[in-house]
Design goal:
With 304 residues, the protein is α+β, with helices and mostly antiparallel strands. It has ten helices and seven strands. The chain is elongated.
Length: 304
């Protein structure tokens, strides 16, 4: 390419803010996740015999007030709701189908137990972590260890990506570039045509404007091309770092990657090759490789 990064600013001279290096997942958030899991594993169960703390649905079979017969009465033994204390005490120990006598607010009742529901409230404890069926996890302490083993690398990588992105943004401002305008225009147009085809194939007609009017295909592609200009400088940086690391994506490399993707997706390689574009593919692979290089340096700035 005629366009290139001539002089790369030394990103290692930049001061990395302390907050950018923070990656550790707080134990307090793991505790919140355990509490959410406890709520998910809590539930209700129908029981045969009433105990304190249950919710009991009864049917009134007899009452000193005629209009109460046949009505549903809900009791919550243990809550000691005003006026229902005697009934709550009387229902404890009764089984579904049994009748009992009680008094509520000076009214005599004969109630029949119809349904008993007991809430099972799971707490954050070893019982909870054991039923999660996670490998090697039997206790809450095991869960904390397992969570860090599963997620610490991910959090570290995210922090490294943030630092790497910061370096790239600063390099784009401070480095020296040689830009061939015709080459830049052609590069943006090439990517725009690929995006236009992808939009149309997915059923999105980018020629249609927000006000309902239509523009030509050429105008639509030109509009997309303008949005691609901001990616040209980053691409030149990716090329610089990949060249420095002797990383080159060839036609043979593209074919190998497409064959790998086809195998993973269960599709024919020749079908994917028809959609493959080496310029777009090179952009993606060069970006990945550049971040891989920078992230190795970024890890030095992470909290210990």
């Amino acid at each position: 390419m005629k366009s290139k990064m001539l002089n790369c600013y030394d990103y290692t001279q930049l001061e990395v803010a302390e907050e950018l290096g923070r990656w550790r997942y707080p134990d307090s958030e793991i505790q919140e996740e355990l509490e959410a899991l406890a709520r998910d594993h809590s539930g209700e169960e129908e029981m045969e015999e009433v105990k304190e703390g249950d919710s009991v649905r009864c049917i009134c079979t007899e009452s000193s007030l005629e209009n109460w017969k046949g009505r549903t009465v809900l009791l919550y033994p243990g809550r000691k709701l005003p006026g229902a204390e005697e009934a709550e005490a009387a229902v404890i120990g009764k089984k579904v189908g049994e009748e009992f006598n009680c008094c509520m607010k000076s009214t005599e009742f004969t109630l029949k137990v119809e349904k008993v529901v007991r809430k099972h409230v799971m707490k954050v404890c070893d019982e909870l972590t054991a039923i999660l069926n996670l490998p090697g996890v039997q206790t809450v302490e095991d869960y904390y260890r397992w969570y860090h083993e599963q997620h610490d690398r991910e959090h570290k990588d995210k922090a490294c990506i943030v630092i790497s992105r910061y370096w790239l943004e600063e390099m784009s401002k401070r480095s020296e570039f040689q830009i061939d305008e015709e080459e830049k225009k052609a590069w943006c147009l090439h990517h725009a045509k690929g995006m236009y085809d992808a939009y149309m194939e997915s059923g999105i007609d980018v020629r249609k404007q927000p006000d309902g009017t239509m523009i030509t295909q050429e105008e639509a592609i030109e509009g997309i091309a303008q949005t691609q200009e901001r990616y040209f400088i980053p691409y030149l940086m990716y090329c610089y770092f990949c060249e420095k690391d002797n990383f080159v994506l060839t036609e043979e490399g593209l074919v190998a990657e497409v064959e790998k993707m086809a195998k993973e997706r269960g599709k024919k390689a020749e079908d994917l090759m028809k959609q493959a574009d080496i310029e777009t593919f090179r952009m993606v692979k060069y970006q990945e490789h550049t971040f891989h290089m920078l992230m190795a340096d970024a890890e030095k700035y992470l909290e210990v």
